[in-house]
Specification:
The chain is mainly α. The protein contains nine helices and two strands, in the order E-E-H-H-H-H-H-H-H-H-H. A two-stranded antiparallel ribbon has the order 1-2. The two termini are 59 Å apart.
Length: 239
């Protein structure tokens, strides 16, 4: 509780009878109960954000549902298969992966675009291979029918590199922040070419194009960025 001096317009401790500045008599204030005084005290406790609490609760429920559904499906699949193999449960796993990468990530997580596009490329390529495997029923696919490796993966790599390069040009003043994700995409653009050569002892022109674009962009960053590019890479890897 405090008393107020009208002349000096200051608040003074309740134990003082006179203002220490001007000496004016301070009128008595009405006494209040301990409970009312407790309510008036501001303890500066941070208020909890209701939206964040709800979001955290929904995240935990979604994760629990994901784990339980996959576990139950795996047990049912194991008990009914007879040969102790898990087959259709992988469709449930992939379904949940699609949810987390698309809807779930947008709802619960906030990744920056330069990171999102790298993970989107990786996930989309793996999803294409899974769909191809589900349709063919085998991993041994002839070169002319391996559309996931020949067409989808290189096309996704070129699209991801083009999208990230355009975004970097738009925000050219912050181009160093795109050095690492672009480098990762450039390295990943070699994966279809290397995989195709290992499996088929040959190279398709689409895989060559994707790798060539990756090399061109990587050299461009090294030449244009020079020391800034290498300094940024060292910084990201804490070298």
């Amino acid at each position: 509780m405090v008393k107020h001096c009208n002349k000096c317009n200051v608040d003074i401790d309740v134990h003082h009878d006179n203002c220490p500045l001007c000496g004016a008599y301070l009128p008595e204030v009405a006494k209040i109960s301990d409970e009312e005084e407790y309510k008036q005290i501001n303890y500066c406790y941070p208020k909890q954000n209701t939206d964040l609490l709800i979001k955290d609760f929904l995240l935990k429920i979604t994760i629990l549902t994901c784990i339980l559904s996959i576990g139950i499906c795996a047990i049912i699949n194991f008990l009914t298969s007879g040969d102790y193999t898990i087959s259709w449960v992988w469709h449930v796993v992939v379904g949940w992966l699609v949810f987390w990468v698309t809807i779930g990530r947008s709802i619960f997580f906030h990744l920056q675009f330069r990171r999102q596009i790298v993970w989107d490329y990786i996930f989309s390529s793996l999803l294409a291979f899974y769909i191809q495997f589900a349709i063919a029923g085998t991993l041994s696919i002839e070169a002319e029918y391996n559309w996931a490796l020949v067409w989808v993966s290189p096309s996704l790599a070129m699209g991801a590199m083009a999208g990230l390069a355009m975004y970097a040009l738009i925000r050219y003043k912050e181009w160093q922040r795109f050095a690492l994700p672009m480098t990762v995409l450039n390295v990943l653009s070699f994966v279809p070419l290397i995989t195709y050569y290992i499996v088929y002892k040959d190279a398709h022109f689409m895989t060559f194009i994707a790798a060539a674009i990756g090399v061109g962009i990587l050299l461009g960053m090294m030449i244009v960025g020079r020391k800034k590019y290498f300094l940024e890479i060292k910084k990201k890897f804490h070298m």
